């Protein structure tokens, strides 16, 4: 099933590796300044206004929910939830690998799903650290890129965060492509998507707060981070993308796989 727009905002914020904004600047721009439109962002003025709205939604709903989730669920249990959610995405990864003409990668994801679903107790434990198949990130947006579909302009969607037309089509396509979505009832799918959103937002509380406090232009930084992150996923990056999604509660070792 397609990802709900509320969850899409959380996942897009997380994937961008750190967006937020100063409450005194609801349009995501420096006070008294409007940055010129950058290449690939012809709708910047509208995008900034939508980002301001999305920040208010995050302040009112997503961040408080993520804080409650952190208080109520310990880091070890959060790691188990994350592993199980990742495991349910493996069929989608395998399907996209096949669509990209990568049978070995598809086989790796199928094997990973089988191993983690059985020996890993339904995916609660990721066996990659002890020799299990490695985790891969392959999505339909990458498939469309491999097929030669152009990216399109940068867009900031209400509730749904940053996208381009190609990535939006890929996001929706992934929802229909995963056979797990066909087998689970609507309520189970909805609960899984809410859990994914809570997990992603909880992992980024500190990172988003830091950018909210220190960014002179949160909108421009978000746009840059989102594009850098996506370029890395498409294999276009020239340097390793910084990892800022670590669970702070895992520092004591209780967040291990």
UniProtKB/TrEMBL annotation:
<dbReference type="Pfam" id="PF04333">
    <property type="entry name" value="MlaA"/>
</dbReference>
<feature type="signal peptide">
    <location>
        <begin position="1"/>
        <end position="23"/>
    </location>
</feature>
<comment type="similarity">
    <text>Belongs to the MlaA family.</text>
</comment>
<dbReference type="InterPro" id="IPR007428">
    <property type="entry name" value="MlaA"/>
</dbReference>
<feature type="region of interest" description="Disordered">
    <location>
        <begin position="238"/>
        <end position="257"/>
    </location>
</feature>
<keyword id="KW-0732">Signal</keyword>
<keyword id="KW-0449">Lipoprotein</keyword>
<protein>
    <submittedName>
        <fullName>VacJ family lipoprotein</fullName>
    </submittedName>
</protein>
